[in-house]
Write a structure and sequence with these properties.
heterodimer, A: alpha/beta, Purple Acid Phosphatase, chain A, domain 2, 7-stranded mixed sheet, 4-stranded mixed sheet, 11 strands, globular, B: alpha/beta, TIM Barrel, 10-stranded mixed sheet, 29% helix, binds iron/sulfur cluster, binds fe (ii) ion
């Protein structure tokens, strides 16, 4: 990790601005573009929240990039499965079509990940803690309590997030796993305010402590929004208020599509890369998120 | 993949040293008390919002609901709101509304408005009492909330003949009409159907469902197949459980208890709180008079319906069990 980190007494680094990457899903071209982009924003650190493999081609290509740039990685469900050689990716699909595609790409990814890289993944931590302008940050994959828990915007109540923040002692929570980026800020203690009094939007009351959840999205595939860019998050804690920005990353998605085809990956996956719409694994989407997609 | 939760109480408990301490013996001669499952976290809060009152009297209803079954009565908007307020502090993740038929409760739209201000809501409905004005209001509620509103519509067959033999004359046409209206305003209802056929027919039936639904304007159907629960009216229609169909301690030894709904849910009714929505007819499954009591009480896997959960997982949740959402 490059950049300035003022180490506190406890040894936990305190950063000003960080870039956070979600699921990479073997998209090495998007990863390279995102690293360049983040460096251009002079961040103090870059970290990745896991799921290095799946979906894309040639899984081994992402590892040198992560090592070269000293990017720490939180263990995702996919990394856990591949590292331990489990039977499946622990995404929990029950739909037969989703399962078919999940199995295909899992088998491909497992066979094409070197033993050395698998061994490296086995050492990823379940979570990373750091500070951002003095605020306590907890970075994880799905949720702090469960690696493969989905936190979608439309199924995650503010009071539930407030409980996670209490239980796991952090004011900023960073996750991925769903593939769609979103963020919410709320007043600390929201769940004690009682029904009807839970503020979803930040107010202006002075002296309130604020908490933030950020789903940083995914670099591996587009956000089911009809755009070919992929997304990551930049958090800036140097000012009075935490600033969260989602950054669209344009990359050579046509080259990735070609590489996927030459690896004989399913055409459905290729179409997602080329169109920005998800074509498989739709069962996990809540109605609200699914309704805005095409399939 | 589950890390220890701060609220985790413990794993499946071992039988108490003195088996005679168990509060209830299942049957004469049964010595080993049933395994218990503590609540991991209250993720799903269910409401028996129309009690056991239903406009239909389906022949497979596992809690034998009907217009005359008043064992459990409607919950008022105020009653529900009080529990919702409590649920906020507990960090509940999802709200589910069931019955009977929830839309027979005249407070239902108000209840949904309150719930959707706090979190995602799912309604399990037979969709036979969903006129256009209700559908329009549901759309407003959905659009007015950051949270998802899911409608789970029960249809038990791909023809009126199949469905109506179970759910009653005319119910097929009425439910399909409502699905059409819901799809028209942008909902993607989850069509739920009980598996009454041989496994080998599943693909053909799913295909027929997709065709049927496309015919009424629903082109991206989400389908959910539920296993039959051999209790209530269904026990009469087909069969009850066989004596061996029980959950034993041995069966729970290696089993991830978080797969069971009762490890993360409770059901609130007008007459107290139950461990899950399946065992409403079973007084032993009452977990307390208040939500707090029910949260502290473990579920006792004594009922034979627990065997169906053990085999299939949390069949009552939106995403689990066998789904075909492609
Ligand atoms: S299965 Fe549903 S619709 Fe049918 S009687 Fe029971 S509660 Fe009513
Ligand atoms: S019926 Fe299912 S959810 Fe209910 S107590 Fe038994 S195992 Fe748990
Ligand atoms: Fe993941």
């Amino acid at each position: 990790m490059t950049g300035v980190a003022s180490a506190s007494l406890t040894g936990i680094p305190d950063y000003g601005r960080v870039a956070v990457f979600g699921g990479i899903y073997s998209n090495h071209l998007a990863l390279a573009a995102a690293i360049d982009d983040a460096r251009g924003r002079s961040v103090d650190a870059i970290l990745a929240l896991g799921d290095l493999g799946a979906f894309g081609p040639n899984p081994d290509k992402v590892f040198p990039l992560l090592r070269e740039h000293g990017i720490p990685v939180v263990r995702g469900n996919y990394d856990d499965s591949i590292a331990r050689g489990l039977d499946d990716c622990q995404c929990g699909y029950t739909d037969p079509r989703d399962n078919h595609y999940a199995r295909l790409s899992y088998r491909y990814t497992y066979q094409r990940t070197s033993a050395e890289n698998r061994a490296w993944m086995a050492h990823f931590p379940d979570e990373i803690r750091f500070r951002l302008g003095g605020r306590e940050v907890l970075a994880f994959h799905g949720s702090p309590r469960q690696t493969n828990e989905f936190l979608w915007e439309s199924t995650t109540p503010t009071h539930f997030l407030d409980k996670l923040a209490d239980d796991f002692r952090a004011d900023i929570l960073l996750g991925t796993h769903t593939g769609i980026h979103w963020t919410r800020r709320w007043a600390k203690g929201a769940r004690r305010a009682g029904a009807g009094g839970v503020p979803d939007a930040p107010g202006t009351e002075p002296g309130r402590a604020w908490r933030t959840y950020v789903n940083v999205g995914a670099l591996g595939r587009p956000a089911n929004d009809g755009r070919t860019e992929v997304w990551y998050a930049v958090l800036d804690g140097s000012g009075d208020a935490l600033d969260v920005a989602f950054v669209p990353v344009a990359y050579d998605h046509e080259a990735l599509a070609e590489e996927m085809r030459s690896e004989e990956l399913p055409e459905e996956f290729v179409q997602t890369i080329l169109t920005g719409w998800w074509t498989t694994c739709l069962e996990i989407l809540p109605g609200k998120e699914r309704a805005v997609g095409r399939y | 993949m589950t890390k220890a939760l701060p609220t985790l109480v413990g794993e499946v408990t071992a039988p108490p040293a003195d088996a005679s301490e168990t509060p209830r013996r299942r049957m004469e001669g049964a010595v080993s008390p049933a395994p218990t499952v503590p609540l991991r976290a209250l993720d799903q809060l269910w409401f028996q919002v129309s009690g056991t009152v239903c406009n239909l009297r389906c022949r497979h209803c596992f809690i034998s609901c009907s217009p005359e079954n008043h064992s459990f009565w409607f919950m008022s908007r105020k009653e529900v709101a009080e529990v919702l307020a409590e649920s906020v502090e507990m960090g509940v993740k999802e709200y589910y509304f069931t019955g009977g038929e929830p839309f027979m409760n005249r407070d239902m739209l108000g209840i949904l408005e309150d719930a959707l201000a706090l979190g995602p809501a799912t309604v399990l409905t037979n969709a036979t009492v969903l006129p256009q004005r209700t559908v329009d209001r549901l759309r407003e509620l959905s659009e007015g909330s950051p949270y998802t509103l899911e409608l789970r519509v029960s249809i038990d067959g791909v023809t009126a003949e199949m469905n109506d033999a179970i759910r009653g004359e005319g119910s097929f046409e009425r439910a399909l009409g409502a699905v059409s209206r819901l799809a028209e305003v942008g909902f993607l209802p989850i069509i739920t159907t009980m598996r009454t056929w041989d496994d080998s027919a599943t693909d053909a039936i799913l295909g027929a469902f997709r065709e049927l639904l496309a015919g009424v304007g629903y082109h991206r159907p989400r389908l959910k197949i539920l296993p039959p629960l051999h209790i209530g009216a269904e026990a009469e229609r087909t069969r009850g459980y066989a004596e061996v169909e029980r959950v034993t301690h041995e069966m729970m030894a290696e089993y991830p208890a978080e797969l069971l709904l009762c490890s993360g849910a409770r059901l609130v009714t007008a007459s107290g709180v139950w461990v899950c929505p399946i065992l409403l007819d079973d007084l032993a499954a009452k977990a307390g008079d208040t939500l707090q009591e029910a949260v502290d009480a473990p579920a006792r896997l004594e009922a034979q319906a627990c065997y169906t959960c053990w085999v299939n997982g949390a069949i009552c949740s939106n995403v689990s069990g066998f789904t075909d959402f492609s």
